[in-house]
């Protein structure tokens, strides 16, 4: 296997695995704190049992996320030494701050789990709040590093040497805010729909009749989080689309398979990308111009403005984007239906519960596809305009062997995590 492909495949596999557990690690503490807060207010035992069950899951996911994140930190240096030589001193600050956030999260997870019978109820609930905040901050700091890779800032290069580094300007590169919001909301979308899917599946199968009140409470809390996060995610996604059109035109043109700069540019849904054409796609006339500038006559830059060697893999970007938008549309639809049912104080029908159960894996697909859009859309650059991916990869042998080895490790970790979470969810381990 060619060394660049092997390095990208290994890094991609590691990130695809880690991002799921990182997202759940950000979102699940919010569900735990919400459940315990409702117990403090209502004194309903179902909320207390739910908080304890979810807290055990939170601990398991934190450990698996920490393990996969540690692997990634080593891979950055081992697989991309040239990139780290350039970027290490520039984006070291967010990684350092992420380390502090991680330690705070670990400390308070320990306090929270150990303090169930040792702290007062209010003090115990308060000890969960730093977990929610530090988990979100940890993900945010890492995301700022990714934002820098999309639009490097905060330095100059003189004679091949990085000088005049401004760590704050680098961390707060132009895309940082929209990327942090998008990533954080994605974590809450995945966690909300994921937890709701587990509860909905149990209700459909009637496998938790002795804990039905607890499961219904979990479904309500999780769907409430998901139903708030998914429309907000659409709003942020709309903002990101216009940002990309202005600042990352090659990526944006690839999303919409716009090969030629034009006015009245259409949105193209689906289709088969072949060379510089799209076959069988559904075009919405002038919709892209309207999206970008609120003007159907606005000009939108196409891939003809980008040198052929600087273009992303158009097909991969477009298919990933369509997958993300299509999946997010289904999630939004189910959230709207559930909200209407909940506001009318009706019991969800079996068909709705099945829809919610399906939304669990769909939310993961949407998140992974969104990450593919970001990473494929930046190619062929590892740091846009600064360093190409092909120039940044290690030339050390054996990367393909590492890919196969780590893939087996990830499968074992995922299976072990799933087994532990299933045990936590059973009757004997719920309290």
Mass-distribution shape: globular
- Portion of residues in beta strands equals 5-15%
* N-C termini distance: 50 Å
Q: What is the SS-derived class?
A: mainly alpha
Helix and strand element order:
HHHHHEEHHHHEEEEEHEHHEEHH
Mean pLDDT: 87
Q: How many helices does DSSP assign?
A: 14
Gyration radius from CA atoms, angstroms? 23 Å
Strand order of the biggest β-sheet: 1-2
Unreliable parts: none
What's the β-strand tally? 10
Largest sheet: 2 strands, antiparallel
Tell me the number of structural domains: 1
Determine the fraction of residues in helical runs and give it as a percent range. Answer: over 70%
Short structural summary:
With 431 residues, the chain is mainly alpha-helical.
Describe the protein in words:
By secondary structure, this protein is mainly alpha-helical. The protein has one domain. Helices cover 72% and strands 6% of the residues. The protein contains 14 helices and 10 strands. The protein has helices at 3-42, 45-79, 81-87, 92-114, 121-150, 167-171, 176-205, 212-247, 249-255, 287-293, 314-343, 350-378, 389-392, 399-425, and strands at 156-158, 161-163, 262-263, 267-269, 272-274, 277-279, 282-284, 299-300, 381-383, 387-388. The strands form 5 sheets. It has a two-stranded antiparallel ribbon with strand order 1-2. The chain has a two-stranded antiparallel ribbon with strand order 3-8. The longest helix has 40 residues, at 3-42. The radius of gyration is 23 Å and the shape is globular.
């Amino acid at each position: 296997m060619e060394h660049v492909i092997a390095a990208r495949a290994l890094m991609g596999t590691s990130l695809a695995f880690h991002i799921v557990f990182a997202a759940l690690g950000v979102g699940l503490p919010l569900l735990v704190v919400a459940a315990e807060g409702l117990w403090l207010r209502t004194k309903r035992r179902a909320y207390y049992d739910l908080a304890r069950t979810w807290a055990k899951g939170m601990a398991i996911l934190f450990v698996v996320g920490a393990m996969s994140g540690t692997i990634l930190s080593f891979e950055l240096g081992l697989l991309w030494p040239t990139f780290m030589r350039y970027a290490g001193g520039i984006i070291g600050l967010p990684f350092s701050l992420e380390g502090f956030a991680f330690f705070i999260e670990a400390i308070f997870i320990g306090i929270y789990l150990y303090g169930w019978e040792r702290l007062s109820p209010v003090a115990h609930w308060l000890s969960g709040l730093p977990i929610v905040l530090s988990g979100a901050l940890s993900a945010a700091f890492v995301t700022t590093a990714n934002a820098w890779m999309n639009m490097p800032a905060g330095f100059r290069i003189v004679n091949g040497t990085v000088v005049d580094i401004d760590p704050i300007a680098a961390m707060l590169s132009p895309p940082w805010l929209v990327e942090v919001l998008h990533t954080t909301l994605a974590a809450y979308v995945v966690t909300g729909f994921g937890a709701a899917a587990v509860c909905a599946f149990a209700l459909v199968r009637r496998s938790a009749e002795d804990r039905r009140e607890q499961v219904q409470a979990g479904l309500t809390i999780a769907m409430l989080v998901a139903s708030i996060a998914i429309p907000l995610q659409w709003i942020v996604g709309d903002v990101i689309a216009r940002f990309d059109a202005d600042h990352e035109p090659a990526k944006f043109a690839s999303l919409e398979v716009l090969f030629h700069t034009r006015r009245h540019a259409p949105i193209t849904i689906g289709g088969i990308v072949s060379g510089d054409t799209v076959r069988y796609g559904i075009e919405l006339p002038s919709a892209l111009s309207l999206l970008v500038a609120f003007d159907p006559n606005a000009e939108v830059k196409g891939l003809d403005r980008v040198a052929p060697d600087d273009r992303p893999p158009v097909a991969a970007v477009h298919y990933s984007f369509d997958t993300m938008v299509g999946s997010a549309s289904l999630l939004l639809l189910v959230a709207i239906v559930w909200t209407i049912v909940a506001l009318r104080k009706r019991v969800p029908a079996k068909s709705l519960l099945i829809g919610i159960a399906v939304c669990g894996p769909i939310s993961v697909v949407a998140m992974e596809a969104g990450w593919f859009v970001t990473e494929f859309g930046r190619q062929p650059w590892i740091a846009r305009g600064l360093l190409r991916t092909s120039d940044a990869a290690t030339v050390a042998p054996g990367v393909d062997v590492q890919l196969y080895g780590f893939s087996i490790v990830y499968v074992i970790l995922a299976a072990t995590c799933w087994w532990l979470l299933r045990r936590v969810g059973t009757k004997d381990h719920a309290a």
